[in-house]
Amino acid sequence: MLRRARMLGVLTFLLTGGIGIISSTQIWATVQRADAGETLTVTGAVIYPLLAPLSLAVLALGAALSIAGLVLRHILAVLGVGAAAVLILGTAPLIGSAPISAVAPAVTEATGLGGEESLRQVVADVTATPWPVIALLCWVVLALASVFVLLTARRWPTGGRRYRSAGEGAHRSSGPLDSVDSWDELSHGTDPTDSAR
Question: What is the pTM of this model?
Fold first, then answer.
């Protein structure tokens, strides 16, 4: 069960970070222009500039979590909670109808106009696509996964045991040593020619 807890935590971090990166390239809002009657599309990376960098950070947290020790697990989980909070606060206002300030860079690039008053005159409507909702759900899952890691990380099995050498006396044989045993003794830091053994 605890082995699955570690896998679940790592996979959730990786999955939410991956979806965040994918969503940053997707259309988050469409802008209906009042002056030209045409529609502009705005991607997640334009409408929320922190989306791609924070999603990459979540991916990195997931990768680090897969090999982290006890103290680092807790630190990574706290960072996960922080990233989720920032992403939730940045994504929530973009659901339904995004504010003009969020689509301003795309409208300014298309029209050459700047300033919120000028943009209000050329923007008839801003409609959000389902992507902000998808992203928001991912960030809620990330927050829950981070709390889950905080609660269970202490009981995760450590991966380093299989690489540790056996106890000090376990590698010493009681009988005569052949050449392979001698090399094993040397690798454990013991002189196989020492007759005092």
Answer: 0.73
